[in-house]
């Protein structure tokens, strides 16, 4: 007989003996179970595959974390759902780990043929006494069969099928391979599937570097991963580790001296603080997401990924996420925000966003002073958003320019203005300094942030149409179906630094809005491109001439108006300040032809006045926010040549004619005027007139400032700022001055 025939005869004989052993084991179990179960088991035996007919293995669970990198390719974080696998080779498994697993899971593993008759009989006796399945008695081979081929149902039918397949498997696979595959397919708790992942998750090391105590810890987890994982119950895991060590001693895998040394150790979970006295086995800390740098930005990117791809792919799919963040600029922005906050304390906060408006790429995002203290990302507005103050006025100006009104259109600029058709005690809008400026054009009204002009302007061009434009510019919190009043022109609606940067970036980009994104490209674990934002398409929101005229006007805010501290040496800057009622928030939003930055300062948890913040008695958009803008943009534009804005083109013709409107004030030179009913419906406070529905958004009550301003906190001279122009008064309670200061 040749060698091949001998091998066939040997395997055939072994297979028959394996089935015989399985049948004996099954019979032993049947003697101790109720007749009904015996019938089920016999049926299973008859239905089981013949030797050589192993079923197809179930697909391995592969859970790989997604890697996030910055614009330079440096890893800045991981996204995982507490589940991962780490590929290992059979040669990577150390002998000490094999010994630990065999000692505690299957002491006769190297001797039996897949089914341990002694173990089955012992388990059957225990189960009979318990009145159900209380002990498995399965060998490592059987457990691998369960992991790879079968379900985890605790039934006699499954156990019988498991035994038969285990006997067959031992004829076609070596013991070493079976043990390796068992370790590869076992769950070790804490999201670790397979021994490679377990070594990384618990000890932050490759499996071949495990020591005796660590190997015993992992071997002990297999029996009950949820209960014996050191991360869920370190005391139970430590007790189980000592049981494994005792089993290794009893079976000759450890000598007495080594056992005493290893058993004297204590499992220590780093997150619990100081270690106990004596030798320890350290359970490495595990970051929930693996995020390391720029956590506000990573949180924002993560939310976008989940919306696009779902948690299964994001947390387990091994994606590579290339982001847009510029690490050098991000570091500068974080430092600038920290400097502006100075010695102030939470809840005083600042946030910033810098974007490349031509691509929508977010280059830097600061969501607050300290992520460890608060994970609320203020750069995207937190949960409620913030009122933008007068920094909303350019949106009204954009609607006006789209209707044919130009920068030279003249308006009456009284110190106070009563909203037409308004009934109630909040119908008056006043300038922050109460000054009557006579007749001024829209250019100067923007530079000086004149409230009464913009209250008239938004009524002239329609509040509803202004809302529609704002939504197109990216103001997601505005509801086009709601009714807003004239105070919307002064910022009486919530937004975020990200939305403001996107809106102003549209002005800078010639009226083309490219939605902001932190994601440059996403590829799967095989390198296939799932998403590519390297050259995203934009949407035309404004006529180019409108955008150019806006930039022309807004340059004057920095050169001649309330935003002088936002200037960047040698560069051309356009922008607008914004200060909420009673100094409750302060903004500067601006841009050059290349980049756009939005800065917000306020209280994170409430509406409170910004008094005495790092050397500034009353914080306005022209103080800390403007300075922060200048410092961030100075760094951002360091590698850009200065570039002028294009000459503004001719604005479109006026949409309305005098015959289509009603002039409600003879002092206004602008015209056209909105129809009287629309004016009444769009009034600026909690007011209404006959047959006109009450507005959905009311201007909040104005809080009068104290008679004497709070004392300014003494700080080093280097942090003090000179007085800012045009910051002299706050409206009394009788007038509406919402978002009123520059």
Write up what this structure looks like.
This protein has 742 residues and is of the alpha+beta class. Among the domains are: 1-61 and 109-185, no CATH class; 351-681, 3-Layer(aba) Sandwich (Beta-lactamase), CATH 3.40.710. The protein is 37% helix and 12% strand. The chain is built from 23 helices and 20 strands. The strands form seven sheets. The chain has a five-stranded mixed β-sheet. Helix 1 (3-30) packs antiparallel against helix 6 (156-172), helix 16 (393-402) crosses helix 18 and helix 16 (393-402) runs antiparallel to helix 21. The model is unreliable at 1-20, 22-52 and 657-741 (pLDDT under 50).
By DSSP, the count of extended strands is 20
CATH topology (fold) name of the domain at 351-681: Beta-lactamase
**Main sheet summary:** 5 strands, mixed
Q: What is the overall pLDDT average?
A: 81
**Low-confidence parts lasting 5 or more residues at pLDDT below 50?**
1-20, 22-52, 657-741
Task: State the helical fraction.
Answer: 25-40%
Please tally the helical runs, counting DSSP H or I stretches of 4 or more residues. 23
| Assigned CATH architecture of the domain at 351-681 | 3-Layer(aba) Sandwich
Structural class: alpha+beta
- End-to-end Cα distance: 101 Å
Cross-sheet strand order for the largest sheet: 2-1-5-13-14
Instruction: Specify the CATH homologous superfamily of the domain at 351-681.
Output: DD-peptidase/beta-lactamase superfamily
What percentage of the residues does DSSP assign to strands (E)? 5-15%
| Rg measurement, Å | 36 Å
- Name of the CATH class of the domain at 351-681: Alpha Beta
- What is the global morphology? elongated
